[in-house]
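Worked example 3 (structure in, sequence out).
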C-alpha cells in the first residue's frame, strides 16, 4: 500500500529533522512534579491531543504505545509505570526509534526518577503488532490511526483489542472531520501522512471502535484542530474545521443493546418523587445530574417526560458521579 510507504518516508524525515509545527495541538502538554521533558522531545511532539490520563494509570500498569514519535508521551506514561519494560513503544520507522532512544537518554539525565530501561522500543507495525495477546493494561496511540484508510484503521483497532487484557483501556487522540472530504484530498498520500486528510467522521471513528468490540467508550475532549480553507484546498466548496478527539475505549463486553458511548450527557429527574428508577439500572436522585451514555440518554428522551431533562453532549467526559 503506497500510502503507508509515503507515511514511513515522511516520518523518517520528521525523525531526522524535528518539524515543530507538524501536528500542533490545542491540548496542553502535561507536566507532573519532577518531570522534565527534553527540548528535542517537545519539538518532536507530533500528536494532536493527549493520551496520558493519570486515572487510567493506577497500579503500575504495562502500557503499549504505538507510533512513538519523539517519545514524549512514553516518558509521561513511564512516570506512572516505573518498571523495566513498563512502557513498550512500537514504530515502523527505525530512524524514529533511534531519535526517541536518544531523547530517552537525554531524559534520564534530567529526571532522577526515570530509567532508560522503563521504555522498551520495538520495530513493528500497528497493523500487525509484535505483542502477545492480552498482555497490556493500557494501549495508546496519538495521531497515527487517522492516517490509515478505513480497512487499515479497523485492523489497527482489532490489534489493539487483541493485546489488551480484559477491561484494559485503549486511549487515543486523532482528528475527525465534520463531513466526508473529497477523494482528491483523501487520496493525497502526503496530506494523509501529515494528519490532515485521512480523518474519519466522528460516527465512522466511533463506529470502528464499537465494531472492534469495545463495550464502553468515553469521549474525553473535542477541540479545534485545523481549518481546511478552500483558498488552499480548491476542491473544498467551503471551509472545513477538523477537530481533535480524545477517546478512551474500554475492553468491557458489549451489552446486548449495544456499546455505551459517554459524550458528557447528564439526565436530571425533577418530578414529585425523591427519585426515579428507569428499571434499567439508573436511579436518578431528584434534581441531581446523573452521567448517562448516549444510548441511555436516547431511551430517557423517548419517554417524553416533562420531569426528566437530558443535557447536550459536552464531549468532555472522564467518569464522574457523586455516589
Ligand atoms: C503523527 S506521528 C505521532 C507521534 C507520537 N504519537 C506523538 O504524539 O508525538 C506518527 C508516528 O507513527 C509512526 N508510524 C507510522 N506508520 C506506522 C505504523 N504503521 N505502525 C506503527 N507506527 C507507525 C511514525 O513513525 C510516527 O512516529
Amino acid at each position: 500500500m503506497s500510502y503507508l510507504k509515503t507515511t514511513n518516508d515522511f516520518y523518517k524525515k520528521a525523525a531526522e529533522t524535528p518539524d515543530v509545527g507538524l501536528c500542533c495541538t490545542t491540548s496542553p502538554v502535561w507536566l507532573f512534579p519532577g518531570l522534565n521533558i527534553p527540548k528535542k522531545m517537545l519539538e518532536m511532539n507530533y500528536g494532536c491531543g493527549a493520551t496520558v490520563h493519570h486515572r487510567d494509570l493506577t497500579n503500575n500498569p504495562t502500557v503499549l504505545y504505538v507510533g512513538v514519535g519523539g517519545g514524549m508521551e512514553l516518558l509521561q506514561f513511564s512516570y506512572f509505570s516505573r518498571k523495566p519494560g513498563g512502557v513498550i513503544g512500537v514504530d515502523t520507522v527505525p530512524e524514529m526509534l533511534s531519535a526517541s532512544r536518544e531523547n530517552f537518554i537525554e531524559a534520564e539525565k534530567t529526571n532522577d526518577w526515570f530509567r532508560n530501561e522503563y521504555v522498551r522500543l520495538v520495530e513493528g507495525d500497528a497493523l500487525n503488532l509484535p505483542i502477545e495477546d492480552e498482555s497490556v493494561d493500557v494501549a495508546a496511540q496519538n495521531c497515527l490511526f487517522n492516517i490509515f484508510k478505513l480497512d487499515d484503521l479497523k485492523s489497527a483497532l482489532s490489534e489493539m483489542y487483541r493485546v489488551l487484557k480484559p477491561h484494559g483501556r485503549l486511549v487515543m487522540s486523532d482528528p475527525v472531520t465534520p463531513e466526508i472530504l473529497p477523494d482528491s484530498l483523501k487520496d493525497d498520500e502526503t496530506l494523509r501522512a501529515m494528519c490532515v486528510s485521512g480523518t474519519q467522521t466522528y460516527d465512522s471513528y466511533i463506529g470502528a471502535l464499537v465494531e472492534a468490540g469495545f463495550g464502553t467508550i468515553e469521549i474525553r475532549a473535542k477541540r479545534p484542530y485545523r481549518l481546511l480553507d478552500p483558498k488552499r484546498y480548491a476542491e473544498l466548496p467551503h471551509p472545513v474545521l477538523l477537530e481533535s478527539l480524545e477517546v478512551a475505549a474500554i475492553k468491557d463486553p458489549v451489552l446486548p443493546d449495544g456499546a455505551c458511548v459517554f459524550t458528557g450527557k447528564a439526565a436530571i429527574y425533577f418530578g414529585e418523587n425523591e427519585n426515579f428508577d428507569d428499571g434499567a439500572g439508573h436511579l436518578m436522585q431528584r434534581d441531581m445530574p446523573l452521567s448517562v451514555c448516549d444510548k441511555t440518554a436516547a431511551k430517557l428522551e423517548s419517554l417524553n417526560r416533562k420531569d426528566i431533562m437530558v443535557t447536550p453532549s459536552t464531549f468532555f467526559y472522564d467518569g464522574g458521579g457523586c455516589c
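Notes: The pocket of S-adenosylmethionine is lined by residues 7, 11, 23, 45-47, 66-69, 73, 90-93, 96, 125-127, 142-144, 195 (CB under 6 Å). The first strand starts at residue 63 and ends at 66.
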